[in-house]
């Protein structure tokens, strides 16, 4: 004879009545097979936050194991796509009838991509932090894709000051001389010819986009490629000397404050098909002990805010 075990979530009275926005679990370890346009399916190790709302004011609590098991099915039997993510959320709500009418999943992971160097065509791995958030409320599915893109930013002010010092050094050394082309050319290639260099720093663009609810795939590669192409100075993986020199050239030709980077990406996403966008630019200053930061959003009444 099977013993019937008590289910406190169903039978016990709540110590304090009231609704709750979200109840669930955080940081669930979850291997996933991730599918995205332009990429072969990739196995990633994700952390998942899983929630439902608690709509029933009298209920003691939710059934957390049901959330866990739905995610486990996604992990073991399915590939992560917009469709399967919505199925998980449907399962959350249907398994909590009478308790909840909304569900939410947040998945975070590092996406490893093979990236080709600037000139030598060598390849190496780069990891991009990705967050996928799905919500379902009153049968309305919302889908968000977020990614961090790392790049280099060289300060325009610092570059101007460095050029001035180079001019001054040239004047001090050659003001009394009539120079030939070869002499100028040789000096420019010497240590004395470059007496100052502008400061640059590793920088990160935090990007969030709202996808259409009927999206068939996560086109994460398009987001990453478009941001890197717009900013021109993505951090590299494998490099030879020719790649390093080309990287230096690109930095010199694409000087930018955080405002410049934010405006470039704002224009990019204004022309995109995404329902909404959020941009945070972080320049991790090498000159200052603080960071330079800029934000941009589409500005929808109920969209992303800063």
UniProtKB/TrEMBL annotation:
| Keyword Cell inner membrane tagged | no
Q: Where is this site: May be catalytically important?
A: 155
**Similarity comment:** Belongs to the GTP cyclohydrolase IV family.
Pfam families tied to this protein: GCHY-1
Keywords noted in UniProt: Hydrolase
Q: What does this protein do?
A: Converts GTP to 7,8-dihydroneopterin triphosphate.
Catalytic reaction(s) noted: GTP + H2O = 7,8-dihydroneopterin 3'-triphosphate + formate + H(+)
Gene Ontology MF terms: GTP cyclohydrolase I activity
Pathway listed for it?
A: Cofactor biosynthesis; 7,8-dihydroneopterin triphosphate biosynthesis; 7,8-dihydroneopterin triphosphate from GTP: step 1/1
Where on the tree of life does the source sit, at the highest rank?
Bacteria
Identify the EC number(s): 3.5.4.16
Q: Does the keyword Hydrolase apply?
A: yes
Please name the gene that encodes this protein: folE2
Which InterPro entries does UniProt cross-reference here?
Answer: GTP_cyclohydrolase_FolE2, GTP_cyclohydrolase_FolE2/MptA
Which NCBIfam families has this protein been placed in?
Answer: PRK13674.1-1
Protein name stated in the entry: GTP cyclohydrolase FolE2
GO biological process terms, alphabetically, are: tetrahydrofolate biosynthetic process
């Amino acid at each position: 004879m099977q013993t019937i075990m008590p289910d406190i979530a169903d039978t016990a009275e709540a110590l304090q009545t009231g609704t709750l926005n979200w109840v669930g679990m955080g940081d669930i370890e979850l291997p996933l097979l991730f599918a995205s346009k332009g990429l072969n399916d990739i196995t990633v190790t994700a952390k998942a936050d899983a929630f439902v709302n608690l709509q029933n004011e009298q209920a003691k609590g939710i059934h957390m194991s049901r959330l866990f098991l739905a995610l486990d099915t996604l992990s073991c039997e399915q590939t992560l796509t917009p469709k399967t993510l919505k199925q998980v959320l449907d399962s959350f709500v249907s398994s909590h009838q009478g308790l909840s009418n909304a569900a939410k999943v947040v998945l975070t992971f590092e996406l490893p991509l093979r990236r080709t160097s600037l000139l030598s065509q060598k390849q190496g791995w780069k990891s991009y932090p990705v967050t996928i958030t799905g919500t379902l409320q009153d049968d309305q599915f919302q889908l968000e894709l977020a990614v961090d893109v790392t790049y280099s930013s060289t300060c325009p002010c610092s570059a101007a000051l460095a050029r001035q010092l180079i001019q001054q050094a040239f004047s001090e050394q050659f003001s009394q001389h009539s120079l030939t082309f070869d002499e100028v050319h040789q000096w420019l290639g010497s240590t004395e010819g470059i007496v100052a260099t502008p400061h640059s720093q590793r920088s990160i663009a935090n990007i969030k986009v709202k996808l259409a609810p009927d999206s068939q795939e996560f086109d994460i590669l398009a987001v990453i490629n478009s941001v890197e192409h717009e900013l021109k100075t993505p951090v590299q993986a494998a490099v030879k000397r020719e790649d390093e020199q080309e990287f230096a050239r690109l930095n010199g030709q694409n000087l930018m404050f955080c405002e410049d980077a934010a405006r470039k990406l704002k224009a990019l996403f204004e022309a995109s098909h995404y329902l909404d966008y959020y941009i945070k630019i972080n320049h991790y200053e090498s000159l200052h002990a603080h960071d330079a930061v800029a934000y941009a959003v589409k500005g929808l009444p109920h969209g992303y805010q800063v």
